[in-house]
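Now read these lines:
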Amino acid sequence: MKKALIIVDVQNDFCEGGALAVPGANEVIPYINLLMEENEYDQIVLTQDWHPADHKSFASNNNRKVGESIILNGVPQFMWPDHCVQGTFGAEFHKDLNRDKVTHIIQKGKNTEIDSYSGFQDNNHFMKTGLDDFLKYHDIQLLEIVGLALDYCVKFTCTDAVANGYVTCLHFNGTRAVNVKPDNGRDAIFDMLQKGVTILG
C-alpha cells in the first residue's frame, strides 16, 4: 500500500509570532521532521494557505471584528485576521520545517470569494485543489496527516481524505488546535473518529 504524508499549513502566520498563531505550533515541527526522517513515504505533500489580500475571510475586508461570523456564498464564515497573504513572509513555510523530501505543494484559499480549509477542496465544495488527482495518479492509498490547525484545516483535510477513499491517519503529536472555543480541538478529534479517521499517538 503506497502512502503519503500530508503536511498542512506549517506557515509563519500560524506559528509563534504569526498573525494567526496556533498555541504550541512550533512544537510540532521537530516531530514532523522526525516522521520524514524515520519513515519511507512515496509522496510528501505540503499544503499552503495562499490568500489574495482582499480575501473575504478576513475581518478587515468586511468591516467586521475578528471572531464574528458572516454568511459567505451560503455557508457560515468565521472572520479571521489577515493571514497567509500571497507573497508575504507570513505565507512562507516555517524555516525549521525540513523540505528536502517534499514532492509536491498544494496551494489553497486562492479564490477571494471562498475560504478553503481542506487540502482537497474549498469550503463550498465548488472547486478541488488537485490534491486528490495527484494522489490517485501516484496510486496512494494511505495518508498520514500532520500540521496546523487541528480544529480547522487539519480536520477538514482528514475528513475529506476519508470521503475520497483513503485510509487516513492523523498524528496527534504532529498537530495543534486554534481552540477559538476551549473544546474545539477535542470536538475535532471526536468528529474525525466518527468519520473514520485513525488517531495515532
